[in-house]
Amino acid sequence: MFTTPLGLLALLGVPAVVGLHLYRQQAKQRKVSALFLWEGMGSPRGSGRKRQPLHRSPSFWLELLAVVLLALALAGVRGCGGSAEHRVIVLDDSASMQAVEGPARQALDKELRGLKARDRVSVVLTGASPRMLVGPGALREEVDPALDRWSPAAASHDPGAAIDLALQLSAGGELTFITDDFQPQNWPPEAGLVALGEPADNLGLSHAQRVRGPADSDLVFAMLRSFSDEPAAGTLELWEGETRLAERPITLPPDGVLEEQISVPHSAGMLRLALVLPSERNALPLDDEAWLAPLPPRTLGLHLALSEDRARALGLDASGERWATLVPDARLVSADRAHIVLGEAVDAPDTWRIELPPPGESAALLGPFLVAQDHPITRGMSLEGVIWSLPTQPPPPGQALITAGSEALLLQRGQGHYRLNLDPARSSLARSPDWPILLLNLAEARRAALPGLSRTTTQVGQSLVWRSAPLGEWTLTDPAGRSRKLPHQEALDIGGLSTPGVWTVQRDQEPPTEIAVNALDPLESELRGRSAGARAAEGGSAVAEASVSLSDSALLILLLLVLALDWWALRNDDRLVLPRVAL
Asked: For 127-171, how does the pLDDT look when each residue is reduced to its tens digit (9 = 90+)?
């Protein structure tokens, strides 16, 4: 009935009020010259404090009522349900949750059943940086509008940070984690688990990229993957608005990978790749679609510093013309003016470059190769079937981006500084699709570092930078049409891209720039290992912090009203006490 029962100690004021009215102070004696001056006055009261008959005046009853109201307000009157409960829920925001989005919403609604008006709710979304969907400490009616905006699309991540945040919100009490993979050993006992995943076959896009092609064209690269033990057939379509630009029949072998390349006019606007599959082979529709925005027009300067033999081994020529033809919107320049230099022992510390070791002995490697798919330089490379010739001299230190066992094949030694540990004369890399992918990735990464928008196509959860952004009011609009202002900085940070689709960024009244945001992650597309299960949380329920409720407010307002009435009653009391007099 009370959240703070000790507040009832204020009821001790009741006998105090009664005592003050029973024992009143005696009037002092005063000598006067004549009694007729005091005619019409009330009867005198005794001197000193002594017990007198209790006079039940309006002021007496109002003061008693004030004491009772104060005690109830301090004690915190509640309904029969007890103290307010704080329900803390962690919701898995991974892209794979779209396969069970309906059951996840039902599970969340079940967790919130029975909550009272005073109870509080906090819903935490997992992610590389966890964020609040509801709360902290929101009312129950705030959940449904927020849940209507929820669409899981995050790349693969560790939910541990969201669990830690939820434990802080619950002050060590119970919480519920709704996910699609039952792994109770990974989470503390305070976390109740509701896992809804079911093993399923899936096919989807794992990579999509738009780069500048020859002449006035762009090239669209698409990588499709099968996460199934059976072969599958479908269609790959490329759309610009309502116009279908290309249609390719595709057949994916079990656990296979398929690469497609489509040429489109450079003037084409926002493109949409769509993988059309039979519904029974399409457990996760999210990875069947990708958007590709027009490329920002920025010309790159290239410089090749290799001998004719080594250039030919890499599928280039000594002049560099083939390289400039391969990289869209690029031209050959001198080393001191180049944006990218490819050669041996490049003496250009402020220029992006790929260095090759000098000619020497080497040994062939057949793999398997481990490629850092999350790095912009190696994204989309597979090295399937490539013969790599590794020089025998040890490479310099750096971050390994491509490895074979303990051998580092491609290293990053600094910003824009790469070491390709390769003997091109004895390698098949130049004859595989991975070599142009590497060169094009390098070109687009370098282009992204130039002034202006770093890139126009990205992944969910990643940020974009508008370098050297001019002054003005910048607005970011999501695919649903919701807008927010961006604080101006010289390097304008465009973050919070949490939903796949077409976003726009606009400065003042200038034409908006379109941004394509995709949710392509092979780790999320693999659904065969998902599992279901449930585990009850251990520990006590989380309790909401005390706050002024509607009943508290009503009691305090009534208390103030009673005190005002008491003051009015005393002020308007026309009964005067005649002091004791002596003649």
From this structure: 988 999 998 888 888 899 999 989 999 999 999 999 999 999 988
Give the residue among 533, 529, 523 at the shortest CA–CA distance from 185: 533
What's the confidence (pLDDT) of residue 563?
77
- Report pLDDT for 30: 66
The tens digit of pLDDT for each residue in 170-219 reads 887 889 999 999 999 999 999 999 999 999 999 999 999 998 777 788 89
Among 359, 329, 348, smallest CA distance to 447 is for 329
Beta carbons of 342 and 353 less than 8 angstroms apart: yes
Asked, as a colleague might, if the bond just before 368 is cis with ω within 30 of 0, I would say yes
Angle 550-571/58-75 helices, nearest 10 degrees? 160
Give bridge partners of residue 354 from the DSSP assignment: 342, 418
How many CB atoms are located within 10 Å of the residue 268 CB? 18
The CA distance from 566 to 574, in Å, is: 15
Element at 313 (helix H, strand E):
helix 308-313
Separation CA 261–CA 210 (nearest Å): 10
Count, residues in the chain: 583
Instruction: Tell me how far the alpha carbon of residue 370 is from its chain's centroid.
Output: 29
Walk across the sheet containing 202-212 and list its strands.
Answer: 202-212, 217-227, 257-265
Q: What is the Cα–Cα distance from 178 to 192, expressed in whole angstroms? A: 9
DSSP state of 426: G
Long-range contacts of 44-51 (CB under 8 A, 24+ apart): 44/577, 44/578, 44/579, 44/580, 44/581, 45/577, 45/580, 46/580, 47/580, 49/23, 49/24, 49/25, 50/23, 50/24, 50/26, 51/22, 51/23
Each residue's pLDDT tens digit, 344-380: 877 777 789 999 988 888 888 887 899 998 899 999 8
- Torsional sign, CA 403, 409, 414, 418: negative
- Assess contact for 52 and 22: CB atoms under 8 A: yes
Residue 571: helix, strand or coil by DSSP?
Answer: helix
